[in-house]
User: Fold this.
Amino acid sequence: MWAAITQESNRWVLSGDLIIDHVTQVVNASKALRFESPAQLDFSKVTDVDTSAISLILELKRRANAENVELSLVNVPENLNSLMQLYGVDAFI
Assistant:
């Protein structure tokens, strides 16, 4: 499978498999996108995740903070919510 990130106004839409094999590609693609505040990271088109998806979220959150942009997560898959709880990062993501 594949993974991608596209921009629709203030919403960044993730799609495909956010797994270790694809996260670097998504991070690199995100560098061409610009945050519009408040920004949303939309997971509605994501088909699979592993723990590398948490790294992706943290990277995009760091970037948003550096640019003084509020970034929220929407349509987060239950398995990603479970991983964030397991690793104890759900409270600050």
